[in-house]
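tool=predict chain=A
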Amino acid sequence: MMKRLLFTGLVLSWLLPGAYSYGFEKMGQDCSRCHTLSHQEARDLLKDIWPDVKILDIRLSPSKGFWELSLESGGKKGLIYVDFSKKYLMMGSIISIKERKNLTQERLSELDKVDVSQIPLDDALVMGNPKAKSRVIVFHDPD
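tool=predict ok
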């Protein structure tokens, strides 16, 4: 009886942690309900590393367990990742193996997009049809 109880206990202790660690993945749990990171917390975490950092956006990262922080420092934009425990910072690319895509680079491209409708063209020299489907905007400083 004792051997059977010990064997059952060992089997359960071996199976239960595995079931627990994957518990939310299939259920689609929204991790942001339990884990939060405010702009002020992010600034406080990073102030010793980047004193002049400006936090642009905080969102869940494509990899579970991390926050994706869009930031600007020294006029340059970048992405870093902070884990939910707020103890570790990761810099670098997250690459989707299945899709063979660099998710970090795609996100940086989104951040660097320029809205051409916001460029003032009042003093611009317009060549061709001003209502054309495609436009080429060239910037030049003659001085």
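The helical segments are 2-21, 39-46, 103-112. DSSP finds three helices and six strands in the chain.
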